[in-house]
Each structure stands twice: as C-alpha cells, then as structure tokens.
Design a protein that fits this description.
The complex is a heterodimer of chains A (257) and B (635). With 257 residues, chain A is mainly alpha-helical. Helices cover 60% and strands 2% of the residues of chain A. Among the domains of chain A are: 47 residues, no CATH class; 111 residues. A two-stranded antiparallel sheet of chain A has the order 1-2. In chain A, helix 4 crosses helix 8. The longest helix of chain A has 40 residues. Chain B folds into 4 domains: 300 residues, 2-Layer Sandwich (Nucleotidyltransferase, domain 5), CATH 3.30.420; 80 residues, ATPase, substrate binding domain, subdomain 4 (Actin, Chain A, domain 4); 111 residues, Sandwich (Substrate Binding Domain Of DNAk, Chain A, domain 1), CATH 2.60.34; 101 residues, Substrate Binding Domain Of Dnak, Chain:A, Domain 2, CATH 1.20.1270. Chain B has 16 helices and 30 strands. In chain B, strands 1, 2, 3, 4, 11 and 12 form a 6-stranded mixed beta sheet that branches. The longest helix of chain B has 42 residues. Classes of the chains: A mainly alpha (257), B alpha+beta (635). The interface between A and B is medium-sized, with 22 and 27 residues.
Chain lengths: 257, 635
C-alpha cells in the first residue's frame, strides 16, 4: 500500500524481515522504519505483525525483561503525549502506532496469548475459542462442538454427574459435605493438571523455536511442512485441553460458592 | 518559560481547582477571594446572572430551584440512570425533553445541559488563571474519574470545548494523583491510589519506574462518594423530623438544602471530633437538633464505605497482586479524611496510607504536571510518561444480545481492535453495529456507547461484503471508529448516534451561544468592576475631605473635584461602562494633587509613629488605587 503525502514522497509498506526501501517523508533518507534513521521523524504506520514490531522472530520463547524494556523505550518515543505539539498528521500516526504497539506488547507478554497469536499467524482457527463457531452455534441453535480431551473423558463424565447433584442440592438449599469435599478434591486435581500443561507447552515452544532456527539457517534439508504442522497441532490440542480444564474448574467453583 | 500557558484542572463533584507548574513544582491557582477551591456550584441570581463557586453557594439554600450542585453525577448519563438521584436534587429537569435527548436542567426560566453547567465552572477556573497570569489561557488538561465511561468522558470534553478551552488531554484522577506523588517522592515501586471523592470512587494500581507511570489495573464506582453519605444522613434527619414533629418536609427544597448544609458541616466536624450536632431551623419556627456521636456516624455509613472493598479486591486480582506487594497507598479525595475510611484502607492494604499530600488538591496538581509534560517544556518532567488503561471492556452486541468483547478492560491505551462484519440480506447497503462498555455477558446489562450505521456498502449477495471495522481507544479513553468495505475498498460512512451525548453540532452551537453570553457576562462584569472602583475613589475622597490636605487645595480645585464627583455619582447608576470609566479617569486626574498632598502627610505621620488607616478597597481591582494610602507590605 503506497501512501503519497503532499510532497509527492512515497512511504512504502514495511516488509517483515528487512527495513524497507522506504523514504523518509521528512528528509528523504532511505531505510524508513518506526522512525527515520537519519532525521528521527516518526513514520506512518504500516501493517506489521506483533513479533516484527518488536524486532523479534516468530519464536515462542521470549526474553520477557527485554520485551518490557523495549516496550518502555518505544512508549517514550511513540506515545501521543510526546506528539502533543507536533503536526496533526504525526499525531494521528502516533495514535495508531502506539495502539499497535500496546496491542503487540499485551499479546506477546502473556504466554498463552503469544501462543494463540502465533497460531493465528500460521492460519489456525482455534476451535474452542473461535468466535465464528460460537456465532454460528448461537445463530443456528446448535450445541457448539465440545472437544473433550480424551484423557479426561472418564473424569468429565463423573464430574458432570457430581456437578448436577450439587446444583440440585444448592437449589434445594441442602448441603452435602461429602460431595463438596469430593468436588474440592477434583478441582485440586484439575488445577494440578492445568499447571502441568504449562510445562508441556514449554516443550512445544522449544520444538517450534528449533524449527524456526533451522529454517532461518537455510537448512538444505528444508523443514518439511509436516513437521511444522505437527507441532502446531500439538499446541492447538494443548490449548483446547487447557481451555476445557479451565472451564471445568470454573464450573466447580461456581457450584461451591 | 512556555509562551502559552497550560493549566491542569480538577473538575470535581464537590470542588474544582486549577493549577500550573511553577518551575519544578505544581501550584494551585487561587480564586479572586483567595480560596484554592471553587465549589462546583452554579446558580442563577435574581438578576439572571450566572454565578459560580462560593458566591453561588448561598443560593442553594435561598433559591434551590435556581442552583445546581454535583452536576458531575449527571454528566454522560441518560435519564433512566439518574431517576433515583434526581429525587434528592432540588433542581428540576426541563419539561419538554424528548426521549434520547440529553437532559436539561432548569435554573429559573433557563435550562442547561450538564456539559453547559460544567462549562460555567470551567470558565470560572479559566478566568481565575487568566487573572493570575495576566494573560489568556486556552489550553488545559482536565481530569476525570478513571472509571468514567466513554459517554462521561465525551461529555467532559464537550464541557471543555463549550468553555472555549483546547482540552489537551483527559487524565484519570488517580493517575494524576500518582503524578503529583511521584514528582514529590521520586521513588520506584507499586502504588495504589484510593480516591474517594464527592461522587465517584476509583482505585488504581500503578507501577512507577524511572519516570514511567504505568497503570496496571483500575476499578471503581462512578456512583459512590461523599454525596451518598450526605444523602443518607439527610434521609435520616428527614425521618427524624417526620417522626418527632409529624411533618414531611421532603418536598420543601429550602429545608432539605438547609439540612444538607448542616449534615455536611457535621460530617466534616466528625473527622476531628467525637461528636457533632445537626441543627436546622424548620419552617414555622421549629427547631431540629440531634447530636451524632462518631461511633453512630460510622455505623450509619459503614455500608456505603464497604462498597469500596469490592472494586479494590477486583483491581488487585486483575493486577495479579497481593496487598502485601503494594509499596504505597495514596489517599485522594475529601472523603478520605473520614477516620473510618483511613482505617479501612489500612486494613485492606496492611499498611499506613500516605497522607502527606492534600487530598483536595493532589489531583489538580497532578493535572498541572501532565499539562507540563504535554507542553514539553520542563526539566522536571522531561522523563515522565503516563501509560494509562481503559477501565471497562469494549464489546459489540452480537446475535442473541450477547456481548463479544473486543478490547478488554485494563488494556493499555491507546488500544485498538479490528472486527469484520458482513450483511445478512441480498443487496444490503448498511449494517448496524451496537457498541457497549462493561463486563457483563448481555448487552442490555452493559452501558450502551453508541450505535453505528455503516452505510454505503456496495450492493452484493448476502454474506459477501467484508466490512472491516477498526475500533480505537485514544489516550483520553474515548472511542473512535472507522470502517472499510474490503472488497471494494470503499470507506463506509459511519453515522454515530451517541447514546447519551451531544452531537458536534450541538456543542458548536453551545460554544457560540457561550460567546454571546460571555460577552454579556463580560460587559456586565466590567460595569460592576467599574462601579466598585468608583466606590473606592469616592470613599477615599470622603476621607480626604476630612483631613488637612483638603485645606491646602484652592477653592477652584475643590470646586472642580466636587463637579467631577457629582458627574461620577450620576453616571454610576447607569450601565454604560465607557461613561463610568471616563468619569473615574476625570476624577482621578482632578484629585492627583490632593493625593500627593495626602501622601506627603502620610509619610510624615508615619515618621511621627502614627498608624495609617487603610482605605476599604472592596471587591474592586486589586491594583492599589493611587488615591489610597501607601501600604507597606512585609513579605
């Protein structure tokens, strides 16, 4: 998308990897990025993915401290407050770019959000979280496809019965202490499973990152798409399981309140 | 020094203030009467003149149907939201309101929307600043409660515009307070700001570090404050009166306001004393009196204060912090002077709150700091940056009335989200979008922000158009929307119907009207000031006549002065400012020699050790009149 300003200069959309062959609208220098490297003037916003915004490869392990530091550095330079006295055009750019940056930081900072985002970049639609699926379900009145993690099938069945019973009790105003204790224990177990998922996810991250490293190194036995897909699927599966367990824990907590 | 003055304004429920940065410290600008606080009260006096602040306060009791207080509680709100509150206010709404129209409040025979009323307060603050600087002031930072929603923020911005101000930024009150604190303390750490004002409660948790003030989480209640305490006590008093004296005075606005004043005085007294008295003169000469011990007061208001606990706990949860991880708790707002509040805060956070800063002034001081940051000028503020958040989730109403959240609460602003829509019907050229703010599942339980019609979609089969809608929350916390049909690349026109707001056109009209009014105001003010000045001179002349200097004048001089005096007295009765001015100048000239003679004798008297009377300068201009005796001030 080429943007022409009134001086006839073009600022060209940034490529993901290298700094663009763009010209600074203010001083004409090449290598325009967030700011012109020559004259320091703010450049117009460009569609970039969140990783690239922070100069990061599409890898899942991130140095959180560095990310925070960069966020503060960029904020000091991009925030609309800094452009309060600047031209209206620059103010508009600062507004857009700082919102882009805030969105990027928020997403990359949280491990799950980061994972989901990467999967989205890879073209994956997370079934459980897919808003489209929810929409469709609500529209057609169908029950949304529930992906019950296979290793939980038995537990879930048992748990659902217990929850039903507990809900009825609640309605009646009765309290079954044994049932409550059982539910509390189940919740504890689920929470432990939930925490364990963090460790599992980290493994996948490492696998993924290794893949990216290989691709970047331009390995001649290029990474087959299959490997990429396989790791992706494992992560999607984990996120679904995680989401499912979280919902179960929530259901139990609701009943126990 | 900046060539254009920028100020920070705290537009409070009960009191408003204006401040600026003097070097490296923010300072509150006093009003003409020397007071730092301008009560947020607006009244229409018997002459049809608008009064603001202390001079408006007495009309609250005398003619409560011509006075407004706590208008902040009505900003950006719909009629349905304020029905309960309106019952307790003495003012009435305009009778010809249409559904969906912004409410208008009647003051005498005139009516005003809440932003217009707020604009009067802002104009007063602006005048105070201009008088102080001796220069025009156009740019300001105005504070809002952190928990204010989009409509409430927009209403505040509108008020600024109507008052002729260029609102550089809306800043959240707790964040502003943290700026004042941070500038003062210069420490890094996690700070919680507990802000309980007249009408609103905010709790914000911030990370302060190397000049960056990053809000991590914020929560609150825009419907909770000192006013609720007052209203509870008023209700109790009215019940008492009805019980004891068998008369229901709820509809008697003057009595209710008198009770209100007494209740507020007692509440304030109870912050330092163990008991206070309510005392009100009732109609027909009866007298209501009740002693309230502090313990009873605390018992009565406990449920109100307890309402602050939920938001505090939620904010801590959203921030993922335990109270023990908070390094400092800063108290803001007049209501935090109540001892029970301080105790509650201490219990919540397991530490003594920081009370060095004046809870009434700290927000205005912080706003002044932010104003300086935006003006970009100062050594003290050059490394400071505010990173605030949006307090409420932004969502779109989806099919079935459910909310699809697109920007979550506590997201750092500016923040954005992009959503895609399509049409349901063949050839559909417009799509309706309903945007809401809030945390509830159903749209009807959230605050309706606006309904957008995206028009100008090229006719296509149903489901084909791909309309990309960009939502952007700016640094003021206000929403902007843009839309584009992606297949054709056409920008969709968005007509915004703000749910509780004024249209741009309405604001423009109000601004223009205010110019006329301001002219009128201004002209009237000039006449009043000139009359005051005349009185000063005439009083001094009277004094002069009785002294020895008068004797030293020739008969011709004395005669000439007498004529000028007569002319001035005549013209003072009229409304012609120019004429009065001329007469003053003429008399001044005529009495120059007299003044000199008096000055000489004054000096010689002083040397003889005699004291010297000061002329009563009244409310006139503060520059000493040449005719008045010299004042020797010790700084």
């Amino acid at each position: 998308m080429a943007v022409t300003d009134k001086n006839g200069l073009h600022a060209i959309q940034l490529e993901r990897k290298e700094s663009a062959q763009g010209a600074c609208w203010s001083c004409g220098d090449m290598r325009a990025a967030l700011f012109c490297e020559s004259c320091g003037k703010l450049q117009p916003p460009a569609p970039t993915d969140y990783f690239s915004f922070f100069g990061l490869p599409w890898k899942l392990n991130i140095d959180a401290t560095k990310l925070e530091h960069d966020f503060y550095q960029f904020s000091r330079k991009l925030h609309p407050d800094v452009f309060s006295q600047a031209s209206e055009r620059e103010q508009g750019w600062s507004l857009q770019k700082s919102s882009q940056m805030n969105d990027a930081y928020r997403t990359l900072k949280d491990p799950i959000a980061r994972t989901e985002y990467l999967l989205k970049l890879e073209g994956v639609q997370l079934e459980e979280q897919s808003k489209a699926a929810t929409e469709r379900a609500r529209q057609t009145g169908e029950v949304k496809k529930q992906v019950v993690p296979p290793d939980l099938l038995e537990e879930v069945f048992e748990l659902n019965m217990q929850l039903e019973e507990a809900r009825v009790n609640k309605k009646m105003g009765e309290v079954d202490v044994n049932l409550e204790n059982e539910l509390k224990q189940t919740r504890k177990n689920l929470e432990a499973k939930f925490d364990a998922l963090d460790y599992e996810l980290k493994q996948y991250w490492n696998e993924w990152d290794a893949l990216i490293d290989r691709a970047a190194a331009g390995d001649s036995d290029a990474v087959p798409d299959q490997e990429r897909r396989s790791i992706r699927d494992k992560m999607v599966d984990l996120l679904n399981r995680r989401s499912y367990i979280r919902n179960l824990v929530r259901d139990v907590s609701e009943v126990l309140e | 020094m900046a060539d254009e003055r920028v100020v920070g304004i705290d537009l409070g429920t009960t009191n408003s203030l204006v401040a600026y940065m003097e070097g490296d410290r923010p300072v509150v600008i006093p009003g003409e009467d020397g007071s730092n606080l301008v009560p947020s009260v607006v009244a229409l006096d018997p002459n049809g003149q608008i009064l603001v602040g202390n001079s408006a306060r007495r009309y609250l009791i005398e003619t409560p149907d011509r006075a407004v207080y706590s208008v902040k509680r009505l900003m950006g709100r719909g009629l349905e939201d304020v029905q309960e509150e309106l019952k307790l206010f003495p003012f009435r709404l305009a009778t010809d309101l249409q559904p969906g129209e912004v409410m208008r409040i009647k003051l005498g025979d005139k009516d005003f929307t809440p932003p217009e009323i707020s604009a009067y307060i802002l104009r007063q603050l602006r005048r105070n600043a201009e008088r102080f600087f001796g220069a025009p002031v156009k740019k300001a930072v105005i504070t809002v409660p952190a928990y204010f929603n989009d409509a409430q923020r927009q209403a505040t911005k509108d008020a600024g515009r109507i008052a002729g101000l260029d609102v550089l930024r809306l800043v959240n009150e707790p964040t502003a307070a943290s700026l004042a604190y941070g500038l003062d303390e210069k420490k890094n750490g996690i700070v919680a700001v507990y802000d309980l004002g007249g009408g609103t409660f905010d709790i914000s948790i911030l990370k302060l570090h190397d000049g960056i003030f990053e809000v991590i989480a914020t929560n609150g209640d825009t419907h909770l404050g000192g006013d609720d305490i007052d209203n509870l006590l008023i209700a109790i008093a009215l019940d008492d009166v009805e019980g004891d004296l068998r008369v229901d005075l709820r509809r008697n606005a003057e009595v209710v306001q008198a009770i209100r004043k007494s209740v507020i005085d007692a509440k304030i007294a109870l912050s330092t004393k163990d008991s206070a008295d309510l005392e009100v003169e009732l109609p027909s000469g009866k007298h209501y009196q009740r002693t309230i011990p502090r313990a009873l007061f605390e018992q009565m208001v406990e449920p109100i204060l307890q309402r602050t606990i939920g938001p505090v706990k939620q904010a801590l949860k959203d921030a993922n912090l335990e109270p023990s991880q908070i390094d400092e708790v800063v108290l803001v707002g007049g209501s935090t002077r109540i001892p029970r509040v301080r105790q509650m805060v201490k219990d919540l956070f397991q530490r003594e709150p920081h009370t060095d800063l004046n809870p009434d002034e700290v927000v205005a001081l912080g706003a002044a700091v932010q104003a300086q940051i935006l003006a970009g000028g100062s050594e003290a503020t050059k490394d400071m940056l505010l990173l605030d958040v949006t307090p409420l989730s932004l969502g779109i109403e989806a099919l079935g009335g459910v909310v699809a959240k697109i920007i979550h609460r506590n997201s750092t602003i500016p923040a954005s989200a992009t959503e895609h829509f399509t049409t349901g019907v063949e050839g559909q050229t417009a799509v309706a979008v309903h945007v809401v703010q809030g945390e509830r599942e159903l749209a009807k339980d959230c605050r309706s922000l606006a309904r957008f019609d995206l028009r100008g979609i090229p006719p296509m089969p149903a489901g084909m158009p791909r309309i990309e809608v960009k939502f952007l929350i700016d640094a003021n916390g206000i929403l902007h929307v843009s839309a584009r049909e992606q297949r054709s690349g056409k920008e969709a026109e968005i007509s915004v119907q703000p749910s509780y707001g004024l249209t741009d056109e309405q604001v423009e009209n109000m601004l223009l009207e205010s110019f006329d009014y301001a002219e009128q105001d201004f002209a009237q003010r000039q006449v009043i000031e000139a009359r005051n000045e005349s009185n000063t001179i005439l009083a001094a002349l009277e004094k002069g006549r009785g002294g020895p200097a008068w004797q030293q004048l020739s008969p011709a001089e004395r005669n000439s002065i007498a004529q000028q005096e007569k002319a001035l007295r005549a013209v003072m009765e009229q409304d012609d400012y120019q004429a009065i001015r001329k007469a003053i100048d003429s008399l001044n000239e005529g009495t120059t020699r007299l003044a000199e003679l008096m000055m000489d004798s004054a000096v010689s008297s002083a040397l003889k050790g005699k004291t010297f009377d000061e002329a009563d300068t009244g409310e006139g201009p503060t520059a000493p009149h040449p005719f008045a005796p010299a004042e020797i001030k010790s700084e």
